[in-house]
What we know:
4 strands, globular, single chain, 13 helices, Cytochrome Bc1 Complex, Chain D, domain 2, iron, two-stranded antiparallel sheet, metal-binding, 393 residues
Amino acid sequence: MKPKWISLLAILSLWSCSNDSSEAYVDPYANVKATFGNSIDLDNLANYANQTIPTYITKDNGMANPITDKGATLGRVLFYDKNLSSNNTVSCATCHQQANAFSDTNVASIGVNGTTGRHAMRLINARFANENKFFWDERAATLEIQTTQPIRNHNEMGYSGANGDEDFSNLITKLSGIGYYKELFKFVYGTEEITENKIQLALAQFVRSIQSFDSKYDVGRAQVANDGQPFPNFTNQENQGKQLFQAPPQFDATGSRTGGGLGCAGCHAAPEFDIAPNSGNNGIIGVLNGTGIDVTNTRAPSLRDLVKTNGTLNGPMMHTGVFTDLQTVIGHYGNITIAPGNANALDPKLRPGGNGQKLNLTAQEVNAVMAFLKTLSGTNVYVDPKWSNPFSN
Length: 393
């Protein structure tokens, strides 16, 4: 018979082997690390939730879905992932490029089955928009609802459930089979289950995190009590442009300007420079595809980062991309023609006394307003890695 101490050693040996942590450990984020390398560190997340916001910025349309570092990190992956399109060739970032203030230099962006119906809107400071609705025609009541509509669009990302497309449930199945999504959804929500609502929440958090408050305007605004005061860091021309932008015009009975400013702030008030809620259309009623008119476009992005600091446009302007320089935009507002079929939908501020406004602009005024608009551009939004493509780092 073997001594009892030999049996005891055998038991201890088995216990030691069964508790070998090096063999039992499985990295719960192995797929995230393998896919994204150093661009995403789940132990040291980028700061999305607690970015510095100037005290003079008071609007926030994201209170029902507060930004978290976890949620925005997942949103960043979803935003750049071409797996969200039916043929794996298009992502949200295809149409909304960081290098162009999250817009596109193409008039119409290229999707999986054609092109977009309108120009891709810039996404700068979407969180601080005065208008809570999204899309040019405001058909989405919230940013959350907006985020998955391009995915559900036949032309754009192809999960429409019509015209031979798979529906959104097929996308859910597709993403559920990807290792890094199993890990990220569990990391954010505590479970691997993927739903459209979870995708919407994460994408909206990421988009709302994209902010730009390092412009020449912001430097000046921090030094004064209100926007009506001259900014000490502005040139005389820039301060003149600011005054013209803010002051309302005075019109005669024919709609011709007799004095005052240009009234731009009536629709794009400082300091957010977003579109005023309940605005009408601005007189641009063309369509990109087909014929006829479209008077439903009443939304606009913030005027911040219309251009880069070197003056280069971040893509063409308006929903049709019809304008390619600031001078032409200002000229459009300088002489509004009320087109047939647009007499009621045109914003009332652009038709004083029922007539299309005529601002009678001088070259000096045009140049001053352009100079002011260029002060609204920052630099960080174009280069900050937390808003960059995690798949390419």
